[in-house]
Write a structure and sequence with these properties.
By secondary structure, this protein is of the alpha+beta class. 22% of the residues lie in helices and 38% in strands. The chain contains two helices and 17 strands. A six-stranded mixed β-sheet has the order 2-9-8-4-5-6, with no helix packed on it. The protein has a four-stranded antiparallel β-sheet with strand order 10-11-15-14, with no helix packed on it. Strand 4 and strand 5 form a beta hairpin. The N and C termini lie far apart (197 Å).
Length: 307
């Protein structure tokens, strides 16, 4: 019988098992950082996705409509109201309504609930600070009421509504136009068979469009005439004087023809026409009156001599 104890074969078997175990442990130690890194990267990536995902929330203030007329006549009796409509989230704080004119860095009108509205710069003494668009404490002074609109107030109007957490705005353009102070059409003979017809307007803003029309009563048609010259002059009060003229041959004129000069102010509803009656010979009427005068005078002289 073999002696009991540790034999060489059993010792070799244990040694081999120990070597295999050490190799396995070494592999696990090498792979552990990889598994750890992959796990950490996956965790970081998931966190990044969660952080970068858009967070939907209700806006504190939203501007819904800007009511600014495209045009208004200068010095209109009741002025003009520019209104800024918005909605507020419940419990919003820090509300400010501000109006800006053109590219101004500072507002020309500002209202904070609980305070009196302010008008600044060119709108000082032009805005009605007592005007209320409603009785709601959050909207009552949101509108800008311009008392006496003048042509220099033409431009872009921007309403900005803000709270401590949000801001919204809209922009619209308004033209303050001024009708003409003078509107005239006249003719002057250039030579024996040509006359110059001139249409002139003055004291109008902005620059108007003038068009001459030859109206024929016979065929009831109106024919636009291409003017040969247009002069535009800026006056001291910033309004304009515009003159157009056209040369017309006597062959194109009949005793039943009239001429219209049409005045239009762009981007406004303002349109006006003035009619002018043609005379082939501007002196014809005066010559007729002279002939009648001399005939009557000769008649009475003859009566006195005969008497």
């Amino acid at each position: 019988m073999a002696p009991r104890g540790i034999t060489f074969l059993r010792l070799a078997g244990w040694t081999w098992k120990i070597v295999l175990a050490l190799i396995a442990c070494n592999h696990l130690a090498l792979m552990w950082p990889f598994f750890f890194a992959v796990g950490c990267n996956a965790k970081i990536e998931n966190q990044f996705k969660l952080q970068s995902a858009p967070v939907l929330r209700e806006r504190g203030v939203t501007l819904t409509e800007l009511r600014v007329p495209t045009s208004v006549m200068a010095s209109v009796k009741n002025g003009v109201v520019l209104d800024c409509l918005y909605t507020l989230r419940p419990n919003s704080i820090g509300l400010v309504v501000a109006w800006y004119f053109n590219n101004s860095a500072r507002p020309v009108y500002q209202w904070i609930p609980g305070q009196k509205p302010l008008s600044i710069g060119v709108f000082r003494h032009r805005a009605n600070l007592d005007y209320k668009v409603s009785d709601d404490n959050d909207t009552m002074h949101r509108a800008l009421h311009i008392i006496n609109p003048t042509i220099e107030l033409s431009g872009d109007y921007r309403c900005v509504v803000s709270t401590y957490h949000d801001e919204d705005f809209m922009i619209k353009r308004m033209i303050v136009y001024s009708p003409e102070k003078k509107f005239d059409v006249y003719q002057k003979r250039v030579n024996n068979d040509t006359i110059r017809v001139t249409c002139m307007v003055s004291g109008v803003y902005p620059v108007p469009r003038l068009t001459l029309f030859n109206n024929s009563i016979t065929d009831k048609q109106s024919y636009p005439l291409v003017h040969s010259r247009a002069d535009i002059n800026r006056l001291k009060d910033t309004s304009y004087e515009v003159i157009i003229s056209v040369l017309i041959s006597d062959d194109d004129i009949t005793t039943q023809s009239t001429l219209d000069c049409e005045l239009k102010i762009p981007d406004t509803p303002y349109v006006k026409r003035k009619t002018f009656v043609f005379f082939q010979d501007p002196n014809a009427a005066s010559n007729t009156y002279s002939a009648i005068f001399y005939a009557v005078a000769f008649y009475w002289v003859f009566k006195l001599v005969a008497y």
